[in-house]
Design brief:
The protein is mainly alpha-helical and 108 residues long. It has 3 helices and 2 strands. 13% of the residues are buried.
């Protein structure tokens, strides 16, 4: 059960078993996130529609975005860019690589 704010359940209000979602990335029922990962409406949509496995994919993709665009996580403009990228990654056309991005070569 969610609390009155629409957020995830509070301790003591947990339903049995993990939070399950129909994942927008994988198209099947999977274990969802333990908490809302981002502020606002986007964070709530992610909590309700994104699995833990899909969130792991986003974390890896977001590292590349942060580095390629040289974003500062504390800067409001950088946060806006990350939010736009997150929206695209989960609910838009998917992950787009930055223009001119060259993937690192595998070691070995």
């Amino acid at each position: 059960m969610a609390d009155e704010s629409g957020g995830p359940p509070k301790p003591g209000m947990l339903s049995p078993g993990p939070h399950m979602v129909t994942c927008v990335k994988f198209g099947r029922k999977m274990e969802g996130l333990d908490r809302v990962p981002w502020k606002g409406e986007l964070g709530q949509r992610i909590y309700e529609n994104v699995s833990k496995d899909a969130w792991k994919l986003w974390i890896e993709h977001s590292k590349m975005i942060m580095n390629e665009y040289r974003l500062n996580p504390l800067d409001p403009q950088s946060q806006k860019i990350m939010e736009e990228q997150m929206e695209q990654f989960f609910f838009g056309e998917g992950a787009k690589l930055p223009e001119g991005y060259i993937a690192p070569r595998a070691k070995g």
